[in-house]
């Protein structure tokens, strides 16, 4: 029996060795002019495990070995990383040869079970959907932000009525509850039933379950292998069916425009339309909720930051003759909101520390990319070009003490600071939580306004403090996919601020 086991082990070892040799023999080879190639020795996976364990650390180590441009084999695909932020502009402006829509569309289709917007069955749908993003800018953005403020105030007033003394909650759960409900009502309208709040809570709970497995869906793992995720996704999509959405009162211009557009495509089924609406909801809140949490967490962790932000808000309200606290409604114009420089700096600093998006482009053909300083890189069709902003966000040459939270990092002489340097040169890109170039998140202005409005109302309604003695880290499951979630929730308590006389 023992000799049989040894023989089997020996044979298996030979098979594995042969497979590795075969991989080494037929694996991709670097061509003249191409960036250094990092294949890794594990078939198919390449360097995926090292990358997923600690992306920034891994990429910086490869930069030290191979320079600012290199190609890595990750899980069956090849990614050429550009590490020098001065080269980013050459990527973002080259939309003809470096595409985005095709692979993004495929990821969205398999994740949210929607038909391709690039399909010939739905002519010009992609272009039409992009035109609708105009409702997230200008006067429409003002209206959207005003509605969000009203809805947030109503939710905070409800919280006030429940807070007779110190109220203790988990902070992420608190942010999720408030932001999900306010965003849902602002975008899609109110559920008129007596249990409307309960209905939205049920949607939120299902959304949270789905979102927990979003990273696996985005990576291409079949939904059938993810437990109840397929069932939960179907239930969520059903919530956005025509028969449900027609009952909701109010809603935004952007959602109405999407409804009108979908009605023009006869080949879109009722399910398809509902799936598109659910996709938009995910895009609207999945990153805004954790971004709100981190902004609140860092402010409560740093009393001097919270004091500066509160003082700035107080001065604005006093100058506009507005009262703060429970029972008073606050109205702020976009200009007033933009002039809260300490608040904006605090939000930007939390985004710098918590964002982890990879900016990807797909090479449409073999070509030579011209770079800064007469440099160039030969790129292959079908490869990805990748920018990883967290390495920039944590660069000590750009940001002094980058691991420290500095709420006023984006302020200089009392005004917004937009000049950051590396190697003595001014950077065009220094903060990239929303992507880059033409693929920047179209909802970024509304998202930042939402976070600001939440913080303004929380600061004017409540005193608060963290009551758990622990420092939170990041959950790396969403590494490369947006704002990182905390590795655990944390308890805090809040009570009403006294009414102004």
TrEMBL record:
Keyword Disulfide bond: no
Bilayer-crossing regions: 6-26
Residue positions binding heme: 441
GO BP terms in the entry: bile acid biosynthetic process; cholesterol homeostasis; cholesterol metabolic process
Gene Ontology annotations for the cellular component aspect, listed alphabetically: endoplasmic reticulum membrane
Positions of substrate binding: 110, 287
Pathway: Lipid metabolism; bile acid biosynthesis
Localization annotation: Endoplasmic reticulum membrane
GO molecular function term, any single one: iron ion binding
Cofactor(s), names only, from the UniProt record: heme
The family this protein is said to belong to: Belongs to the cytochrome P450 family.
Name of this chain's protein: 25-hydroxycholesterol 7-alpha-hydroxylase
Organism: Alligator mississippiensis (American alligator)
